[in-house]
Amino acid sequence: MFNRTFFLVIKINRKIILAIIALILLLLSASLVISNKTAAVFNTSKKTITVDPGHGGIDGGSSSFGLLEKDVNLQISLKLRKTLVNKGIHVVLTRDSDVSLESKSDLNSSRYRRDLHARKTIIDQSNSAAFVSVHMDAYKNSNARGIKIFYYETSNESKQLAQSICDKVNKMVFNEFLKTTEVKAELGTGDYYLLRTAQAPGVIVETGFITNPTDNSLIQREDYQNIIAKAIADGIEEYLFKAAP
Ligand SMILES: [Zn+2]
């Protein structure tokens, strides 16, 4: 009788112990998931993004209706920096004023090449997780319009970043602002110098066609520039979150 009770107690105790072990394992795995998520957020906030406003100084980029591409690129890039910094992301700008960058390169090449080489050097030296070059498109046919995001064909990260930005642009700029499905942001590939040579994955965002009257007047509006900057920033943030360990 004593023995039977004794074994029964051991049996019950074993069940309780197993239940406690299961509970501990469950809590441990749950806390691991939570700490992984916290780590991802933490890592994202420690990442550096280089924002590259295209052209500048002597190089106005494309121009139409009295508007110079270099000025729009800088205005949007400054807004993009502000939005990214507000998200806790560290930002490096290749330029924050109306200057070209060829004097920062020791390459024995054309002004244009040296300017681009200086931008690549800034991206590489900042140890960036990614970079975004901000430009505007131009075309002989003034009907061409819309936002285009170019990535480097053989880089999976570049493509993911482009897709992430494209999705946000379509959601925020078109669904919320333009409210039309006529013009959607498009992805494209291009063998551009910065995309090919910079160590970090990057994209070139063409924020509209300077040669199209609608794009040209929209891009000069503060609220339009803000929503484009926010869409690009949200796209970058999502990319960083997915890429975080
Ligand atoms: Zn350009």
UniProtKB/TrEMBL annotation:
Query: Is Protease found in the keyword set?
Result: no
**One GO cellular component term noted in the UniProt record for this chain:** outer membrane-bounded periplasmic space
Keyword Transmembrane set for record: no
Going by the UniProt record, its keywords in alphabetical order are:
Hydrolase
Classification via Gene3D superfamilies:
Zn-dependent exopeptidases
Domain named MurNAc-LAA: which ranges? 120-237
- Report a single Gene Ontology molecular function: N-acetylmuramoyl-L-alanine amidase activity
Q: Which Pfam families match?
A: Amidase_3
InterPro entries recorded: MurNAc-LAA_cat, N-acetylmuramoyl_amidase_3
Protein's name according to its UniProt entry: Cell wall hydrolase/autolysin
Origin organism of this chain? Alkaliphilus oremlandii (strain OhILAs) (Clostridium oremlandii (strain OhILAs))
